[in-house]
Amino acid sequence: MKKLIYAVNRLTLILAVGLLFTPFIPANTGEFGHFGPSGVLRAAGLVFFAFIGFDAVSTAAQEAKNPKRDMPIGIIGSLAACTVLYVLFSHVLTGIVPYMELGSAAPVADAINRTNYTWLRPAIKLAIVAGYTSVILVMLLGQSRVFFSMSRDGLLPKLFSDVHPKFRTPWRSNLLFMVLTGLLGGLAPIQQLGEATSIGTLFAFVLVCGGIMIMRKTHPELARPFRTPWVPLVPVLGILFNFALMLGLGWTNWARLFGWMAIGMLIYFNYSRKRSVTHNLP
C-alpha cells in the first residue's frame, strides 16, 4: 500500500510540474488566441463541437426504456470516458508530429504517415472515415428528434413530425437534413462550419442553464425525472464557463450567431408563436 501511495504521489507531482512547465504551453505571440492561456481558451471553444454527441444522447430520451436512469449514465459516463481518451489522443498526436505542423485539414492522417507502420496507414484512415460516418448519423438522428419535438409543439410545420408508417421514425425530417447537411458539408468552408457549430452549441447550453433556474422558480411543481443538483450554483457556473469559451471565438462567429438568431426570431414570431401548443393553453 505504501508503494502504491508513493507511486500515485510521484505521478501527481510529475503531472503538476509538467503542466506548469512553460514550454508545455507555448508563449503567446502578442495576439489573442495565438498560443498562451488565451490560445488554450480559443482552442477549447473551437473544438467544442466534438462534444455535441453527448448532448445528442438526451434527444433520444423518448426512445429509451428507462430514461430517468439511462440518460444520466449515458451522458456522464460517455463524457468522462471520451474526455480522457481525447486528452491521451492529443498527447500522443503531438508526440508524433510537432504542434506547429498540425494545422492541416487531416492531422491524424498526416501523423500516421510519419510512422514506420505502413500497413497501419490505410486502416487508420478507413477508421477515420467510419468514425466520421457514425458521428454524422448520430448528429442527424439527434437533430431530427429535436425538430420532431418542436413540430409536435406547433413551433415547426407538421413535416418534421411525420412518422414513417413502418419504421416509426421522422423520415421526412431525416431526408431534409440529409440534403441540407450534405450541401453545407460539400460547399461551405469546414473551419467556419465548425466554429459556427461550436458557438451555437455553447449559446444553447447557456440558455439551458438559464432555463433551469427560471423553471425552478416559475414551475416548481413539474415532475422532474432528473433534477440538476446544487441549483443555482451549477447553472451559474455553466453559464460562466460557456460564455468564457464563446468569448475566445472572435467577433466573426458572434456575428454569425446573431445573424442566425435573427432568422430564428423571424420564424418564431411570424409562424411558431401563433401555432404553439403551449402558447394556446388556457
Q: Could you describe the 3D structure shown?
A:
The chain is an all-alpha fold. It has a domain at 37-55 and 188-274. It is built from ten helices and no strands. The longest helix has 33 residues, at 120-152.
What's the structural blueprint in terms of helices and strands?
Blueprint (H helix, E strand, L loop, with lengths): L1 H19 L15 H11 L5 H8 L7 H30 L10 H7 L6 H33 L18 H17 L2 H29 L14 H15 L3 H25 L7
Helix pairs in contact: 2-9, 3-4, 3-6, 5-6, 6-7, 8-9, 8-10
> What portion of the residues fall into strands of 2 or more residues?
under 5%
Helical percent range? 55-70%
Order of helices and strands: HHHHHHHHHH
User: In one word, what is the shape?
Assistant: globular
Q: CA-to-CA gap between the ends?
A: 66 Å
Strand-pairing-aware structural class:
mainly alpha
Average pLDDT score: 81
The largest β sheet comes out as: none
Annotation, overall tally of beta strands:
0
Count of alpha and pi helical runs: 10
In the predicted model, the low-confidence regions spanning at least 5 consecutive residues are none
Radius of gyration, in angstroms, nearest whole number: 22 Å
